[in-house]
Amino acid sequence: MRVFITGASGWIGSATTASLLARGHEVVGAARSDASAAKLERLGAAVRRTDLDDLAGLRAAALEADAVVHLANKHDFSDPTGTNRAAVQTFVDALTGTDKPFLLASGLAGYRLGRPIAETDRIDARGPEAMRGGTENLALDAAAGTGLRAASLRFAPTVHGAGDHGFIAFLVQAARQAGAALFVGDGENAWSAVHVSDAGDAVARAVERAHGGTAVHVVAEQGVPTREIAEAIGRGLGLPTRSVDQEEATRRLGFIGHVLGMDLAATSEVTRGELGWTPSGPTLLEDLATDAYFRA
User: Fold this and answer.
1) Which of the 8 DSSP states describes residue 126?
2) What percent of the chain clears pLDDT 90, i.e. is strictly above it?
3) Could you give the angle at which helices 34-43 and 11-22 cross, rounded to 10 degrees?
4) For the chain, which domains are there?
């Protein structure tokens, strides 16, 4: 298949591109800079110069492809949801009635179930003001109503590995600044996790096998207690761990401090069975036992 990917040169996008190419697919990656274009070319992907503001370009790229994977997110805090929602709506409109797979990145925040989140769970987040601009339900509702072959890629809050610049890297930086690795309360709330190589493999398999109207849980570990994450960061930096309340965590860490207090455990048994996916990369604590996150 010819697969068009937004965010193809990013952390998860690069792993997805490599996995798709290894499985014999052709990848066309969106690039908005020369550096992104050069990285995609090194990976072996074709390049299409466009970005999330170029709705006509996104529509054309979707119509020319056999499948679309939407991983990009415009980090514009003056417009936190509008641009991404417009891009998803563009893909929905272009792909409805074509039977082409459309996979979009989502997450696990917002659920308060008292148990690990399952693929069948749905959160009532709709409209531009909802979390992530309501894009997961925008796509899944369209799949239910029109037969659009759309699936949501719910990524674990930490997609880890050497070179990670996401939540775990931020917590390491925050620990350096605070002189201690922080966790909220008793630290028993857990984050699911997945190694970046396994994430790329899961997305590639989802392009081939995911059904419309479903959620794919890109989750290798159901839940790692945040206290254990803090303890691993403390060992790596030679610092103590410290419990803080939610207010202090949010004050010190902003949005990530808010997420740090959430329970984001999730199952992936359905995903593994449907995709034939068996994660094999290092665990989060194994990655935190190396110096990958702690080099100056």
Assistant:
1) -
2) 83
3) 30
4) 2-155+196-218 (3.40.50.720), 158-194+221-288 (3.90.25)
Sequence-ordered alpha helix ranges (H) in 151-283: 167-178, 196-209, 226-237, 246-253, 255-260, 269-275
Q: Choose the weakest-confidence range: 36-40, 113-117, 196-200.
A: 113-117
Q: What percent of the chain has pLDDT over 70?
A: 95
Structure tokens at 34: 């020369």
State pTM to two decimals: 0.93
Q: Which of 7-16, 107-116, 238-247 has the lowest mean pLDDT?
A: 107-116
* CA 280/CA 180 separation, integer angstroms: 31
115 φ, ψ to 5°? Answer: -155, 165
**Tokens describing residue 272:** 């593994």
What's the length of the chain? 296
What own/partner pairs with CB < 8 Å and gap ≥ 24 does 160-163 have?
160/193, 160/194, 160/195, 160/196, 160/284, 160/287, 161/195, 161/196, 161/197, 161/281, 161/282, 161/287, 161/292, 162/287, 162/290, 162/292, 163/11, 163/196, 163/292
